[in-house]
Write a structure and sequence with these properties.
Blueprint: E1 3-5, E2 8-10, H1 19-44, H2 51-77, H3 81-102, H4 113-142, H5 144-152, H6 165-213, E3 217-222, E4 227-230, H7 232-238, H8 242-245, H9 250-253, H10 259-271, E5 278-283, E6 289-301, E7 304-314, H11 316-362, H12 368-394, E8 401-405, H13 406-418, E9 426-432, E10 437-444, H14 445-463, E11 466-476, E12 480-487, H15 494-497, H16 515-525, E13 529-534, E14 540-547, E15 549-553
Parallel strand pairs: 9-11
Antiparallel strand pairs: 1-2, 3-4, 3-7, 5-6, 6-7, 8-10, 10-15, 11-12, 12-14, 13-14
Amino acid sequence: MTTQTPGLAIAAEPGPQDPRWQGLRTLVVARLVVAAIAIPAGVLWWPGAGSESRWVMSAAMIGVGALSAVLAVGVRLRRGYAFQVGLQLGIDLVLITALAAQTGGRSSQFVPFYVLTVVIGGVLGGLRGGVVVALGACTGYLTLPALESWALGVAAADPEGLPQPVLLVPLLATVGILAGVLGKRAESARADFARASRELNRVRLDQDVILRHLTSGVITLDAEARLVYLNPAAEEVLGIRGDDARGLPIDEVLPDRLAPLRAALRATLEQRETRNRGELLMRTPQGRPLPVGLSTNLLDHEGRTTGVVAVFQDLTDVREMEHRARRNQTLAEVGALAAGIAHELRNGIKPISGSVEFLQRELKLEGENAQLMDLIAAECGRLNRFVTDLLSYAREREIVREEVDVRSMLVEISEVLRRDARCGPGVRFVFDAPAEGELVVGADREQMRQVWINLAVNALEAMGDRGTLTVRWRPATGERVAVEFMDDGPGIPADDLRRVGEPFFTTKRGGTGLGLAIAQRIVERHGGTLEIESESGRGVCARVALPGAVVLAAAA
């Protein structure tokens, strides 16, 4: 589509942000500046300058100022570009012709400004614009003698030594054509540049969107090992903010807990040792292990190293899945073995324990003999409990789901444990219930009772004679309920914490190491998770998260 104004053909109407509007605004300012310098100089240097010259200069300056204000308002509106170009060039031709008629006609110092106007017309209006403005300039030049005679009231003489119309007209026409060609090429170059800028912005936007939505972390350094880019996934994994760290040396950006990553990046940049699917072990801000899979590569430009880029992933979930897979495989193997062993052990233990009970009733033993008999009875009981745990672990009873009120079950379990011999006199129970109502979860009542009793008993045995057992339950993310058992006992050392839940691993004297493994298996069969958090000397928090939780409104 082409928008036309009398005599000019301008390309399709530019948008409000088009740089051509800025060029038109620059023309308004330049006209005002040139007029402020050229009009006083031209009028005062006019050979026939007299008292009337002051009037000419004043009128011209006032006119240019007023017109510039009007034209500036039009440019600010950013509408009718072709009309405004034609209007400004037309005003320039009229102004030059009027000043030349008042200051010597064809010998006036203002005649050369025709050439400048023609050039501007070609640049702004293209080939047709240059030709049209050249014709307007020629017309003005040809009418100068008549205008001069009319303005001064005397016949104007054609001065010698100046270009004759027969020479000036072709000159202006040639300038207009050349300026138009130049303007058209400039317009084409501007359009190409605009397209290239839009394409570059699109590519940059696409690249930024892709990097921001990657689940893998991306970190980029320049040749001086300064941070250039860090995407949101990398910020989350590393626990640092890219906006705050951008431009800083990598030694300042990555703290000591991320030292392996820092060393890998420096090795790639300084020693050109790229990595492919390597693995690093770092630490989170909370001090937990952070396994990371890392690939690094050099950024080269024309054979020169400009930086390094690294892509990495948090392998915590992967390692946890591998750990669970290994544990489940071990559990399955142990379960199959345990079933056979437990059956045979129980067949031998039952007659032994029965015979011991009969002998204790029939014989009146004293001293060492009585102690030995009690020891046999106690060990038979311990072995029987161990066999029972083995059978519970080996068998997977079918889950019978029903609505379980979390509060009522935990309160019931606490009342039972208060009367348990393992609950010392200084032990205190604290219940932290949600304020919004009761929590109901779909689960097997007896199996979840076994899980929670096991966790509570572990906490009581860890605290000994005194301490506080806090039981807390809350709605968790995604219709889940989280039940926590927190004690203030001695805690679990970091080296042992990794093995907690493995069959037959226990730190308790006389323990079988199967209670927590059974509890974890029950929770996982319910689709939940069992997590143990602890620091040596700061107690233990056992957290059970179960799906299918519903919050019921509190009773009025």
